[in-house]
């Protein structure tokens, strides 16, 4: 039997479960020299659609935890997706180059290192065939450093930050925080390098005011001023620890940021402080993503909205075309599109409001057309296409059940939530919901429905943006979660595997289902 510590089990469960031989039915946990024999929670679950064993339907939950722990920012999420695609045999394209594509090929490109489009061309693709797309987003609500972040108050060094998106900002107080993002570095030959950085140790904290100085906080509510109260502490008296850094920065552009912070970044990047010419950093929570709950049935993590959807889509695409023959009978093009800036409206170069995905579709169709001279091949392809807009969904909160419409209360562990809104805040229609549910029905996968109460406002997704951009059939769906937009969110472990199976089934079977329904 394997012996692990309590701390190791709590913070890195998937790493230790994966080390257990399949023949072990139990393992020991050392809690202060006492040993308890327990049955290990399974990270693999058998599909309800077949009698296959868990070994043929491996769980992706452990891999998701690794992805979340790597992906502190939208840049890191994109870079990790890029790494996995290359490892899976996908060919990296450049938007600035001419593309030479072939049926059966697998390709991807990135934009701004925060947006990614990947696709696999069916071997039976012919001009005018459609795209089967799953779209999600890489960004999450967070705090970002201002262009001039250096601030000092009462002998503390502090960092000025901006709020990004609609976060539950009170949850960022009293957390062990750090910084991560991208840095532009000057190379020795005078060129500039784009590098990612992540300071893993706790570096920052936004402290709350003691209740002795705020006696009414529990009755009047915690109402911080986001400009003056949400300012992280970095250090005290850094000039004693880094006297040279302060001296060098006195007449340098680096004066916009504390010399101590710049020194920490240079240490992480193994470069000189003066070689750092620009930074774009998020404030991040350092607590690792992990399993939780009495039966390890939950995932506790930041950024589940929407990296959980992004990773399920990524893995579904990779695994749906990873073996020889997976694309041999495919007539369509399988695609994922992961966008940035959804949390602030998507109107950016790297957001879903840009024509990134549709420009890629047109280029793909043109490259595969060869000498085809028929009429409107791309327009016909769009008419045959289908988009799954995957973004996390509001699971019913047991302490606030009245916030959900009585008959539409999504629960954890019960499958993807199909989102409806009569006012088109979601792009789902009766037809698109039916087709997506037919995919699930064919594979015995559960689905749920969500509609917001009439007396409450409704959020939105990239679904309506993409659907209206060129006219592609779209369904909005998501994994049920709690604490959405908190620094620490929660979803059901089982729903991750259900979403992955549903997405993979979509790629493999949608063509056969779609041809059975004629609307126009």
TrEMBL record:
- Which UniProt keywords are given for this protein, alphabetically ordered? Aminopeptidase, Hydrolase, Metal-binding, Metalloprotease, Protease, Zinc
User: Is Zinc among the key words of this record?
Assistant: yes
- CDD domains (alphabetical): M18_DAP (cd05658)
Q: Which reaction does it catalyse?
A: Release of an N-terminal aspartate or glutamate from a peptide, with a preference for aspartate
TM region positions: none
**Which Pfam families does this chain map to?**
Peptidase_M18
Signal sequence coordinates: none
- Single GO cellular component term: cytoplasm
One GO biological process this protein is involved in is: proteolysis
Asked if Transport is a keyword of the record, the answer is: no
UniProt-listed InterPro entries: Peptidase_M18 (IPR001948), Peptidase_M18_dom2 (IPR023358)
Q: What is its EC number?
A: 3.4.11.21
Which cofactors? Answer: Zn(2+)
Q: Which GO terms describe its molecular function?
A: aminopeptidase activity; metallopeptidase activity; zinc ion binding
So what family is this one in? Answer: Belongs to the peptidase M18 family.
NCBIfam families to which the protein is assigned, alphabetical: PRK02813.1
Q: Which PANTHER family match?
A: ASPARTYL AMINOPEPTIDASE
Give the protein name, as stated in the record. aspartyl aminopeptidase
